[in-house]
Amino acid sequence: MFVSLCLEIYILDLLNGLEEKRKELIHSQLIEFISNMTVLLKAGKTVRSIFKESANWFKDPLSTHLLEVANELELNSTLDEALDRFSQKCRSREANLLVSSLKINNRIGGDLISILDNIADSMRHNLKLKSQIKTMSLQSRYSGNIISIFPIIVLVLLYIFMNKTVVDFFSTSPGVILLFIGGVLEIAGVIVMKKITSIGK
């Protein structure tokens, strides 16, 4: 039970890490996409045509989402509907910000190029800040991981070098109770440590 819970925590942490990396990639790709969009808007392109043309300019995951928008627009979906689905697929605050700005501009007009420039600048600042925080917290996360697994390492070493004593102790009722309590505390410690060191993620 203890091992399965630890494994579950590890898998969840791994999945969260992969999702964070995906969001970071989307973040950086959106910055480039917005920069390209402002250039194309100055050249007289429309938002619809930019989404259609941009699908081949980027790698996944943004490429797939742009292609889906382009396909929906080809099927005569409204721009707002296509943008809403784009935001849902990207699953990022940056995409939500971009979509909200485009939808508002589509309804009431305004200086879209200036708005997009401001959004891109804000995204660059946020990405730089996240990178700095992640770097600063990297050592803390490694220290937290070491502290989390240290009790397990000690128990394994005791089992290797003091096999009979350890087996005899954990064969008794008090030993089983202490092992259970230790397992619960270890899991709680891992969860708390992950929460404390998650600031850079």
TrEMBL record:
The chain crosses the membrane at residues 142-162, 174-193. Keywords: Cell membrane, Membrane, Transmembrane, Transmembrane helix. Its main location: membrane. It is found in: Cell membrane. Residues 33-158 form the Type II secretion system protein GspF domain. It is a multi-pass membrane protein. One of its GO terms (cellular component) is plasma membrane. PANTHER family: INTEGRAL MEMBRANE PROTEIN-RELATED (PTHR35007), PILUS ASSEMBLY PROTEIN (PTHR35007:SF1). This is Type II secretion system protein GspF domain-containing protein.
